[in-house]
Amino acid sequence: MSVLWEESFQMVLEENLLAEKPLTCEDSYINRATQLLEKKQEMVEMEEALQAKKEEFQRRMSSLKQRKEALEQKEDELKESMVRFDKFLKDTEAKQSRALLRAEEGRQTAAQKEAEAATLKEELEGLVQKKERLEKRLHKYRPFAQYLEQVVVQSEEFQEIPELMARFSGLFETQNILAEREQALQKAVENARAELLKVVEEKNDEILHQNNQLADLQLRLEEVRTQALQWESRWVHIQNTAAQKTLLLGQIKMAALNLFHMVCKQKKEVPPVAVEDTEGQLEQVQRCFQDLSDMLTKSQQGEPGLPAAAADP
Q1: Are 6 and 243 in contact (CB under 8 A)?
Q2: What is d(CA 208, CA 214) in angstroms, rounded to the nearest whole number?
Q3: Whose CA is closest to 162, among 212, 111, 211?
Q4: Higher confidence at residue 30 or residue 258?
Q5: Are 242 and 5 in contact (CB under 8 A)?
Q6: Percent of the chain's residues with pLDDT above 90
Q7: Alpha carbon 152 to its chain's center
Q8: Model confidence over 53-74: pLDDT tens digits?
Q9: Vertex 255: Cα angle to 251 and 257 (nearest 5)
């Protein structure tokens, strides 16, 4: 069908060129067809740009996911460090317990030596003076001592007050170490959390920007599609109109050819006119029509004299 239409269009174009008539309508059809093709090309380019934006968006989302996984891995490493530090503290506590046991053994040995040295008079006087001073201090700190004694009695772990004090000192130092370590870890966690929030905020802004661009591109794509549908509708109308014109032209050529055949039968001769030469055929028909018109005019002019000629004999 398209081949027949192209041949018909070519025939019309050649006839119009022969007739030296301007082809304004056909040029308009060609320009509209060209515009339609350009719109389709623009639509294809817009779809390719949209696909490229989608791929870029997916790559950036993948990068954000990898960054988030890296931060989670860092957080797991910090938790593991806390576990190792707790284990270190437990080991340290065990070592301190063993040290306290050794210290107790040392005190027992020292007590034996003091018992041996108690026989010495010089030391006895000094011990008596020291005892007096200790009694004064003991009287001053007696409430605290009583409290510590109650703690030792209630506790199954300690047997003497010095053990409790040593344990308290060790725990106090450990608490200070833990507090410093906790502050450092808390600061590191806060820094990591702030960095994560900053990255998330930046990525959210970037995602919002990409979504806005995607919406603009989709809106532009819909506009291009609407324009393409309009041009396709116009193109179908143009094709239908051209088909109607081609059919009308074919009918006119067929009518001209029939008249030409009638003229040939009337003259009983075939003039050298090609079948495709519609204008030549119409010229022959016009000549025949003119000849018949002249003959009819002459016959009508001779009719008034006919009775007079008949009366002479």
Answers
A1: no
A2: 10
A3: 111
A4: 258
A5: yes
A6: 1
A7: 70
A8: 888 888 888 888 888 888 888 8
A9: 115
Please tell me the pTM assigned to this model.
0.29
108-132 burial code (b ≥16 CB/10 A, e <16): eeeeeeeeeeeeeeeeeeeeeeeee
Let me know: does 187 contact 178? Beta carbons within 8 Å.
no
Three-class SS of 28-71:
HHHHHHHHHHHHHHHHHHHHHHHHHHHHHHHHHHHHHHHHHHHH
pLDDT tens by residue, 93-110: 788 788 888 878 777 777
- Report the 10 Å Cβ neighbour count for 263: 21
- Side chain identity, residue 220: R
Q: Give me the amino acid identity at 210.
A: Q
DSSP 303: G
Largest CA distance in the chain: 211
What tokens does 125 get?
């006087």
The residue behind tokens 């806005």 is 212
CA distances from 10 to 14, 17, 18 (A): 6, 10, 12
The gap from C-alpha 15 to its chain's centroid, in whole angstroms, comes to: 56
Q: CA-to-CA distance for 167 and 158, rounded, in angstroms?
A: 9
C-beta separation of 93 from 170 below 8 A? yes
Give 151's contacts (C-beta < 8 A, 6+ positions apart): 158, 164
